[in-house]
Amino acid sequence: MAMDYKSAGVDVEAGYRSVELMKQYVKATERPEVLGSIGGFSGAFSAEKIKNMEEPILLSGTDGVGTKLKLAFLMDKHDTIGIDAVAMCVNDVVCAGNFAEPLFFLDYIACGKNYPEKIAEIVKGVAEGCRQAGCSLIGGETAEHPGLMPEEEYDVAGFSVGVVDKKNLISKDMVKPGDTLIGIASSGVHSNGFSLIRKVFEMTAENLATYREELGTTLGEALLAPTKIYVKAIQKVNEAGVICHGLSHITGGGFYENIPRMLPDGVCCEIDRESYPVPALFRLIQKEGGIAEQMMYNTFNMGLGMVVAIAPQDTDKTLQALADAGETGYVIGRVVEGEKGIRFVESK
Question: Does the predicted model carry a pTM greater than 0.90?
Answer without folding.
Answer: yes
